[in-house]
Design a protein that fits this description.
alpha+beta; Chorismate synthase, AroC fold; five-stranded antiparallel beta sheet; 8 helices
Length: 353
């Protein structure tokens, strides 16, 4: 089911939403990187449910267990296995709809490809799978931190409400990860309204990486922006991505879209930190289109696994807006790509990480 990611810094995630546990195995992490459970736990706490009214109320502490690859708070160079046990799955919430195809979910495509009926909580297609990604991303961030590379993601739009400025420190304290203190209440009111209507809403998450050295990535088939795009689109709710000026370049002339260069460096960043598939050394800027949560209690038309017309109302515990938790997952995926690209780059040049 495509659970392996990366070429040098390679991860394999495992587990289902309502199984006993989820987790990840990470291979080719260099030895000697400072790492302990608290580093990983901090990232998992940022993603976990049950932290505000804007996320799923599922009560999971998401306590990480390091099974291998770390000793005396440093990586060994051997595979790192990380496990998080599921404690609050409620499969009974899905009994009434166990033969119904949920609109917007992977139920239909999994049935056609694998012959699998809908799994409780979405099974492998659930957002619960991203626990392993975030845990692995924490390890990747530890590696990137040695090179002064940092990654921040935050919400810049929910529905029609858009941020006009970015305050990353505020975003980290806001339950919607809204980057604009002046629009936070309006975003919250919108999410509250759609939730009261048994509905959900989408938004835009911006991801910015600072301190990325120039020269990461490969031209042609492994362009850095191409790999980042694939990583972001592998997140279930992400339906689009743009870099730098993004779709706005369609309304520019070349003289506007090009980033002038001086002896002091680039004078603008319409390219979003990548040219020819290789990092320029500027911040890499991405914006992600996040769809509304597919699980809603509002009645919807569907079919059952036998193809008969039905109506479905999805009960259970679901996020009214996915942006605040998608932001953390997006940071993790960016970290995995950049750690992989860094190790690829080092293997082709002198030096060690």
């Amino acid at each position: 089911m495509g659970s392996v990611f990366g070429r040098s810094f390679q991860v394999v995630t495992f587990g289902e939403s309502h199984g006993p546990a989820v987790g990840v195995v990470i291979d080719a992490v260099p030895p000697g990187i400072p790492l302990d459970a608290s580093v990983i736990q901090r990232e998992l706490d940022r993603r976990r449910p049950g932290t505000s009214r804007f996320v799923s109320p599922r009560q999971e502490l998401d306590q990480v267990e390091i099974l291998s690859g770390v000793s005396q708070e440093k990586t060994l160079g051997s595979p790192i296995a990380l496990l998080v046990r599921n404690k609050d799955a409620r499969s009974s919430d899905y009994q009434a709809i166990r033969e119904l195809i949920r609109p917007g979910h992977a139920d239909y495509t999994y049935l056609k490809k694998y012959g699998l009926p809908p799994q409780s909580g979405g099974g492998r297609a659930s957002g619960r799978e991203t626990v392993g990604r975030v845990a692995a991303g924490a390890v990747a961030k530890a590696l990137l931190g040695l090179h002064r590379t940092s990654i921040r993601a935050y919400t810049v739009a929910i529905g029609h409400v858009q941020a006009n400025r970015v305050d990353t420190d505020f975003a980290e304290t806001n339950p919607l990860r809204c980057a604009d203190p002046d629009r936070a209440e309006e975003m919250a009111a919108l999410v509250d309204r759609v939730r009261s209507e048994n509905d959900s809403i989408g938004g835009v998450v911006e991801v910015v990486t600072d301190g990325v050295p120039a020269g990461l990535g490969d031209p042609v088939f492994h362009k850095l922006d191409g790999v980042l795009a694939g990583a972001m689109l592998s997140i279930g709710a992400v339906k689009g991505i743009e870099f730098g000026a993004g779709f706005a370049v369609t309304q520019m002339q070349g003289s506007e879209a090009n980033d002038p260069i001086s002896s002091q460096g680039f004078l603008s960043n319409n390219a979003g930190g990548i040219l020819g598939g290789i990092s320029t050394g500027q911040p890499i800027v991405m914006r992600l289109a996040v769809k509304p949560t597919a699980s809603i209690a509002k009645p919807q038309k569907t079919v059952d696994i036998y193809g008969q017309d039905r109506t479905i109302e999805i009960k259970g515990r679901h996020d009214p807006c996915l942006c605040p938790r998608i932001a953390v997952v997006a940071e993790a995926m960016a970290a995995l790509v950049l750690a992989d690209a860094l190790l690829q780059h080092i293997s082709c040049s002198k030096g060690v990480p």
